[in-house]
Amino acid sequence: MARPVVGIIGNSYLMNNQYPAHAGGKMNSEAIAEVAGCLPLVIPSDPRLVQVAELLEVCDGFLFTGGRPNVHPEEYGEAATEAHGAFDRNRDAVALPLIRACVERGQPFLGVCRGFQEVNVAMGGTLYPEIRDLPGRMNHRMPPDGTLEEKFALRHAVRLTPGGVFHRLFGAEEVMTNSLHGQGVKTPGRRIVIDGWAPDDTPEALYVEGAPGFTLAVQWHPEYNAANDPVSRPLFAAFGAAVHAWAAGEAAARPALTA
To answer: How many other C-beta atoms are found inside a 10 Å radius of the C-beta of residue 258?
Structure first.
């Protein structure tokens, strides 16, 4: 029997600074296949090539991945500055309406890093261009040097709402995570529930209140070592269960992950 399909939102790259490509990180595909138990399918994030309606029919769930380009601030009513960094308007044009459609349909998705920020913006929220420049905030960016293991090492705690969605999922009120982001949530969007925070109160975990499906998103990168990490594994397993339920026609099956 075929596995349910998870569409992995891809990013645009220039290979060898010359050849344009759409690609997704190997860790994302491994987490979807090995922990969520689904078939990973990388999506070229370009509205000239794919349409939201098509993606909703082809895929059973979606992983909104991290990525170096940021959501363009025009998507939340602000002007672009140098601090906002690079952008990918094609990904914005695919990911944001796709998130809104999934929320309405109850189709499951998991947001990671940029994907976490996309969920907030899709629901009307705003972002800070650079967290480390705010008074009292930590530097949440990826260490510039070191091995891959050092860059994705656990860096800070995330405190969770007692009795909340993520507390129940992880079985703890505090978990340790990696940290590889520059931007962060400024104002939560409509129905966005912030359910986890870094020690400096930067939002780290959220879901969409009242949504009929799985809408969890995290600011860190759980795809790293997902099969073995005690936080990543239950997150991808729960997402996989929701995708399997959707594929089986149980669109509203999220009994353990409602507020």
So the answer is: 12
Return the sign of the alpha-carbon dihedral for residues 242, 245, 247, 252.
negative
Does some domain include residue 137? no
Q: Along the 259 residues of the chain, how does pLDDT read in single tens digits? A: 799 999 999 988 878 888 988 889 999 999 999 999 999 999 999 999 999 999 999 999 999 999 888 999 999 999 888 888 888 999 999 999 999 999 999 999 999 999 999 999 999 999 999 888 888 888 788 787 788 888 888 889 999 999 999 999 999 999 999 988 889 999 999 999 999 999 999 999 999 999 999 999 999 999 999 999 999 999 999 999 999 999 999 654 443 344 3
Q: How many domains does the chain have?
A: 1
**Cβ atoms < 10 Å from Cβ of 234:** 16
Indicate whether 145 belongs to any domain: no
Annotate the chain with DSSP letters as a single string: -PPPEEEEE-EEEEETTTEEEEE--HHHHHIIIIIS-SEEEEE---TTT--HHHHHHH-SEEEE---SSBPPGGGGT----GGG--B-HHHHHHHHHHHHHHHHHT--EEEETHHHHHHHHHTT-EEES-GGGSTT----SPPSSS-HHHHTS--EEEEE-TTSHHHHHHTSSEEEE----S-EEEE--TTEEEEEE-TT--EEEEEETT-SS---EESS-TTTTTTT-TTHHHHHHHHHHHHHHHHTT-TT--GGG--
Q: Is 132 left (phi over 0), alpha (psi -120 to 50) or beta?
A: alpha
CATH of residue 45: 3.40.50.880
